[in-house]
């Protein structure tokens, strides 16, 4: 008689959308949604930093923004490549992200460098949760995409930390400002996933 109680169960690698229920997205729909929304988000981040740099460029406070902007351009390029490879259409709201991102960046920079950093902190905290949730949905069959998302999530957390190091919490009305930006970021994610 074999005692199975001491045997270690081998866990098989989970596949993306493998335990899907009726009404859940198919694997293809999930991947399309992830790539579309992440492309929109990285494009929006690019435009936020461009708005901030339009106001702050040439000032010492712009240096951390320029470093974060360079990383966002790398992220955007990666998602542009994935869109072509996976044949995913961009968000139909691309013109909105273009204008809204720049406006948010410029408006927060006009409030001062600390408000610009508060904007970064708010956006990156939402993106951290967003990327973490995406990573958890991806199985072993999408390991390269999951690794890319995990890498970008780590970069975004560095941006949040840079914002905190550069005085984000000293921005005027910090809780109100970051709360509004977080709410807007969550809405933008929801819309970009679907439209």
**Stretches where pLDDT falls below 50 for ≥5 residues?**
1-12
The string of secondary-structure elements, in order, is: HHHHHH
Query: Which band does the percent of strand residues land in?
Result: under 5%
Helix content: over 70%
CATH class: Mainly Alpha
Tally the helices. 6
Query: C-alpha Rg, in Å?
Result: 19 Å
Features:
single chain; 195 residues; Ferritin; 6 helices; 0% strand
What does this entry look like structurally?
This protein has about 200 residues and is mainly alpha-helical. It has one domain (about 25-195): Ferritin, CATH 1.20.1260. It is about 70% helix and about 0% strand. It has six helices and no strands. The chain has helices at about 25-55, 60-85, 95-110, 115-135, 145-165, 175-195. The radius of gyration is 19 Å and the shape is elongated. It starts with about 25 loop residues before the first helix and ends with a helix. Mean pLDDT is about 90; it is low at about 1-10.
């Amino acid at each position: 008689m074999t005692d199975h109680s001491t045997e270690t169960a081998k866990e098989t690698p989970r596949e993306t959308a493998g335990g899907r229920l009726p009404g859940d997205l198919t694997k293809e729909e999930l991947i399309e949604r992830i790539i579309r929304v992440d492309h929109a988000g990285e494009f929006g981040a690019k435009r936020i930093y461009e708005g901030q740099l339009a106001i702050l460029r040439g000032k010492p406070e712009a240096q951390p923004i320029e470093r974060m902007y360079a990383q966002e351009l790398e992220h955007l390029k990666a998602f542009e490549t994935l869109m072509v490879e996976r044949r995913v259409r961009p968000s139909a709201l691309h013109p909105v992200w273009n204008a809204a991102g720049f406006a948010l960046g410029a408006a927060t920079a006009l409030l001062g460098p600390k408000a610009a950093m508060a904007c970064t902190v708010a956006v990156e905290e939402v993106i951290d949760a967003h990327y973490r949730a995406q990573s958890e949905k991806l199985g072993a069959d999408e390991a390269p995409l999951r690794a890319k998302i995990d890498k970008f999530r780590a970069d975004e957390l560095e941006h949040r930390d840079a914002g905190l190091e550069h005085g984000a919490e000293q921005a005027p009305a910090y809780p109100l400002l970051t709360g509004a930006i977080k709410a807007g970021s969550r809405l933008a994610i929801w819309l970009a996933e679907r439209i």
